[in-house]
Amino acid sequence: MASSGKPKRSSATRAGLLSHVRAQISTVVKRGARVRVGVSGGVDSIVLLDLLARLAPRMGFELEALHVDHQLSANSRAWARFCRQACTSLGVPCRVARVRIARSNSIERAARDARYAALLATRADYVALAHNADDQAETVLLQLFRGSGVRGLAAMPLVREIAAQGRGRGATIVRPLIGTARAEIERYARRRGLAWIEDESNLDTRYTRNWLRREVLPVIAQRVPGYRDVLVRAAFNAAEAAELTDELARIDLERTRANGGVSAGALRHLTFARAKNVLRHVIAERGWRTPDSARLSEALRQALAARRDARVSVDLGSCELKRHGDSIHLVEAAEASREDLFVTWRGERELALPALDGVLRMTRGRGRGLSAVRLAHAPVTIRRRRGGERLQPDPRRPRRTVKNLLQEAGMPHWERERLPFIYCGETLACVPGIGVDHRFRAQPSEPGIEPVWTVRSARRVPT
Questions:
Q1: pLDDT one-digit tens code per residue, 283-320
Q2: Which of 70, 95, 161, 352 has the fewest C-beta atoms under 10 angstroms from its C-beta?
Q3: In the chain, where are the structural domains located?
Q4: Contact at 8 Å (CB) between 301 and 268?
Q5: Please, are residues 82 and 98 in contact by the beta-carbon 8 Å criterion?
Q6: Per-residue confidence (pLDDT) for residue 407, from 0 to 100
Q7: What is the number of other CB atoms lying within 10 angstroms of the CB of residue 135?
Q8: CA distances from 29 to 15, 26, 255 (A)
Q9: Model pTM above 0.85
Q10: How far apart are the first and last CA of the chain?
Q11: DSSP annotation string for 408-460
Q12: What is the C-alpha to C-alpha distance for residues 11 and 388, in angstroms, rounded to an integer?
């Protein structure tokens, strides 16, 4: 994941907002691309919808709209109808996505995460959002209050690349209005005779952003009328600093990569700040939420101080820091519950196993993997590791515990808990990455089924 792009400094007021937005996206959005615009019904998104609808035929891109209904207001269905009507009047296809928001400590964050997930669950090449210069100034202050570093203070860039996650495609987020003041957006809406809606939650000053917007910033404006431009400029400066720290992290990462992770020994030769910068870069690159500085520092300290044979596991929120031998790994936090797993295989080529966070592919062939004839003698089930299981891949050696086989294979301990165990009846027949019990192995030229286990980190574990 990377972010870039500084809004062009030309004045939207002098050039006209249409020309300004065209200049903002002309080097970003390619002809023939699919652009999805997020439409909330507020003045910012309605203006962006209108601008992009005017620009689409001139610039040759395909435009569609998405309204995300958070179902938090009694008016949400009326807002969805309004957005559909606004899009229909402009000839823009519109889809409504209804999401459920988990009641948590931060409804704002939960709503934002659900909104972004809906917007990015698309085959569009670009997702256009209507954040403006006022939003940017507010975000800088909010990040300051959170004690954010330069990446957080960079706030919202004009362009942000989102890497593909799982089976989904990546996308490019573009914010054509990020350098435009809200007052100018409202003037455009009035000149064009546009209608928009007001979300009553925007008046609720219990939310920090609303408190800033309605009570704090008007006071600041009396003393520092140009505060908005100052804070937007500060965000640009922070973005440049973040680019430099990312560049340094990429250089250090190339020098410290080891065994699919990062070498603890190599990190020890860096200053602590540079070592932490490497981990922070990897977390951001994979699209996970960056933990606070103190939490990341403690995780790194534990990983560097631990003995080589120690088992280190530190929860960082959206990911976990693990250590295996000399290698430090960052893995996605387990989302699945630890309930027992019992799935019957009925000949499918592919089995998704969310509880183990991966996909089991059963590839048919000859003379490899499991004997199709032997598997026909009893039901085949996929189960979770329970402990104490034994397997005999080599008929010349005694049955051994799977635990010893896993240790011998050098498999990291956190991956061991995510392996599917394949049973025929009540007999363990195969553990991908370890082997097939010799009694179930396909003979030469015999029809065989080769299990291949793929975890979400895309590491393939064949038999």
A1: 988 878 888 888 899 999 999 998 887 778 888 988 88
A2: 352
A3: 2-223, 256-332, 342-462
A4: no
A5: no
A6: 82
A7: 20
A8: 20, 6, 35
A9: no
A10: 33
A11: HHT--HHHHTTPEEEEETTEEEEETTTEE-GGGBPPTTSEEEEEEEEETT--E
A12: 70
- CB 461 within 8 Å of CB 433: yes
Residue 12 carries which side chain, given as an amino acid letter?
A: A
Task: Match domain 256-332 to its CATH number in 2.60.40, 1.20.59, 3.90.1690, 2.60.120.
Answer: 1.20.59
- Chain-centroid distance, C-alpha 301: 26
Q: How far is CA 53 from CA 18, 47, 57, 158, in A?
A: 11, 10, 8, 19
Identify the pLDDT of residue 14: 44
At the fourth CATH level, the homologous superfamily of domain 2-223 is: HUPs (3.40.50.620)
CA atoms within 13 A on the CB side of 286: 20
For residues 263-282, b (16+ Cβ closer than 10 Å) or e, as one string?
bbebbeebeeebbbbbbbbb
Task: Let me know: does 64 contact 93? Beta carbons within 8 Å.
Answer: yes
Let me know: does 111 contact 97? Beta carbons within 8 Å.
Answer: no
Q: How far is it, in rounded angstroms, from Cα 161 to Cα 222?
A: 37
Structure tokens at 143: 């990040």
Residues 326, 265: contact at Cβ < 8 Å? yes
β-strand partners of 263: 327
C-beta separation of 442 from 350 below 8 A = no
- Which residues in the chain land under pLDDT 70? 1-15, 102-106, 163-170, 334-340, 456-463
Q: What are phi and psi for residue 441, nearest 5 degrees?
A: -75, 140
Residue 275 to residue 249: CA distance in whole angstroms: 8
The answer to whether the beta carbons of residues 459 and 260 sit under 8 Å apart is yes
- For strand 370-371 and strand 94-98, is the pairing parallel, antiparallel, or unpaired? unpaired
Which pLDDT value is given to residue 353? 83
- Exposure of 460 in the CB half-sphere (CA atoms within 13 A): 7
Contacts of 211 (CB under 8 A, 6+ apart): 205
